[in-house]
Design brief:
Blueprint (H helix, E strand, L loop, with lengths): L5 H13 L11 E2 L9 E5 L9 E5 L4 E8 L2 E6 L12 H8 L3 E10 L8 H10 L5 E11 L2 E2 L5 H12 L8 E3 L7 H10 L4 E6 L7 E10 L2 E12 L7 E10 L2 E8 L5 H11 L15 H4 L2 E3 L5 E6 L1 E2 L5 E2 L2 E6 L18
Parallel strand pairs: 2-11, 7-9
Antiparallel strand pairs: 1-8, 3-10, 4-5, 4-6, 6-7, 7-8, 10-11, 12-13, 12-15, 12-16, 13-14, 16-19, 17-18
Length: 350
């Protein structure tokens, strides 16, 4: 389906605003002032989706987590760490301004879709770099606050019902969308997501309030392993001048920086040159990693200050704890390097 034009989106959002429901009768909702920011709920990685009628499942998006704060005509887009990125996302703030004239906090994911209609972090990173604002889509999946009422104490299904009514007929199209959920078998939904080439699914307890931080109310199951890693160095390209041929990656274990291997695919000519330009001023004399490296692991590496974070897709971990078949997807700007740890999978109790 083709996106609505900006003007049509504004008219539809104005109509949706008039249909927004009352909140005072929702169990767990409380009268309260609009908070400046709420720490987001984060999903725990599991090997398999959970089972049971108390769970609903959503498509996992590959983008930037965004909290949209609406205070009358003042709209702010905040990252999961509370950074103000309002100016980076083109017309999205203006569309939200027309969505609702009151106050609201919407939890969602800012994405860019590829030619198949799937969210793509690579496409998002490119759109941000090139200023392609018309490509941004805000997928809205939770509502934390609306017009003087804090909804965090309400259960997920109540919060999402109010959110869907707020968005109105823009639920499925345009640059502001409602992220639907399905009360189906999680394993079958994950299998279908994998068949379609998606990253995975998010499973959420339908009967729980919104709790900030990482816990077991929200679980993520992946078709493709995609995580953040810190760039510790690079290898010069042998095919082009002033370009990288591979990145050296790692992560933090408390204060120790651990070597995780290299990624040598996924670069375009442009991104290889851009990365070289960004990394060259960060060069340092010695490796920032805590572990002893082999001569092969050190060969040809230009070490850098571990400041930048890369999004990387990979097949698995090797027996010696290195990434297998890794591919570069883009730089992450919303997560400090010091917060990057090795992802762990929690086994669900049956």
């Amino acid at each position: 389906m083709k996106p609505l034009t900006q003007e049509k989106s504004k008219r539809a959002m104005t109509s949706a605003r008039r249909r927004a429901p009352a909140r005072e009768s929702v169990k767990g909702a409380l009268r309260a002032p609009l908070p400046p920011f709420i720490e987001p709920c984060l999903a725990t990685l599991v090997a398999k989706p959970p089972e049971g009628d108390e769970w609903v499942h959503e498509i996992k998006f590959d983008g930037y987590r965004i909290e949209a704060r609406i205070d009358g005509s003042d709209v702010t887009l905040l990252t999961r760490n509370g950074l103000d990125w309002t100016s980076r996302f083109g017309t999205i703030p203006d569309l939200l301004r027309h969505l609702h004239r009151g106050t609201a906090l919407i939890d969602g994911e800012l994405v860019v879709e590829d030619s198949k209609g799937h969210s793509s972090f690579t496409a998002l990173a490119e759109a941000l770099k090139r200023g392609r604002a018309e490509k941004f889509v805000l997928q809205c999946f939770d509502l934390l606050y609306l017009d003087g009422v804090n909804l965090m104490g309400a259960v997920l299904t109540e919060r999402k019902a109010i959110l869907e009514q707020l968005l109105g007929r823009l639920s499925k199209t345009g640059q502001i969308r409602f992220s639907e959920h399905l009360a189906v078998n999680g394993a079958r939904m994950l299998a279908e997501a994998c068949r379609l080439g998606l990253e995975g699914i998010i499973s959420k307890r339908a009967d729980r309030p919104y709790r900030p931080g990482r816990h077991d109310d929200w679980l993520k199951s992946k078709c493709i392993q995609t995580d953040e890693f810190v760039i510790a160095g690079y290898v010069e390209s042998t095919a082009a001048a002033n370009a990288i041929g591979a990145l050296v990656l790692g992560y933090y274990d408390r204060k120790r920086f651990i070597y995780a291997g290299r990624v040598g695919t996924g670069f375009t000519h442009r991104s290889a040159a851009d990365l070289h330009r960004l990394l060259k001023p960060l060069r340092v004399a010695s490796a920032p990693v805590a572990s002893q490296l082999t001569g092969l692991q050190r060969r040809g590496v230009v070490w850098v200050r571990p400041d930048l974070v890369a999004q990387v897709e990979y097949r698995a971990w090797t027996a010696d704890n290195l990434l297998r078949h890794a591919s570069f997807k883009g730089l992450r700007e919303d997560k400090p390097a010091r917060d990057v740890k090795r992802p762990s999978v929690k086994m669900q109790k049956r």
